[in-house]
Amino acid sequence: MVSQDLATVLIDRFSGEPEAEAYLEQLREIRRAY
C-alpha cells in the first residue's frame, strides 16, 4: 500500500502531466482512504 506521504510526493511531482492524470486519480483515492 502506498503511504500518504509518498502519494502526496507523487501527486506533487506529476501534477499537470496529462499522461499521469489517471494514475494521480488512483493515488488521490488511496490518500483519501487514510
Report on the structure:
By secondary structure, the chain is mainly α. It has one domain. Helix content is 68%, strand content 0%. Helix 1 runs antiparallel to helix 2. The radius of gyration is 9 Å and the shape is globular. The protein starts with a helix and ends with a helix. The mean pLDDT is 75.
Show the helix and strand layout.
Layout lengths: L3 H11 L6 H12 L2
Helix pairs in contact: 1-2
List keywords for this structure.
34 residues; globular; 2 helices; single chain; 0% strand; mainly alpha; 68% helix
Number of strands: 0
Describe the main β-sheet briefly. none
Beta-strand percentage?
under 5%
Our count of domains comes out at 1
Q: List the uncertain runs.
A: none
| Overall average residue pLDDT | 75
Output the number of helix runs. 2
Please give the radius of gyration in angstroms: 9 Å
Taken from the alpha-carbon principal axes, the silhouette is: globular
Helix share bin:
55-70%
What would you call the structural class? mainly alpha
Q: How far apart are the termini?
A: 11 Å
Compressed to H and E, one letter per element, the order equals HH
In brief:
The chain has helices at about 5-15, 20-30. With about 35 residues, it is mainly alpha-helical.
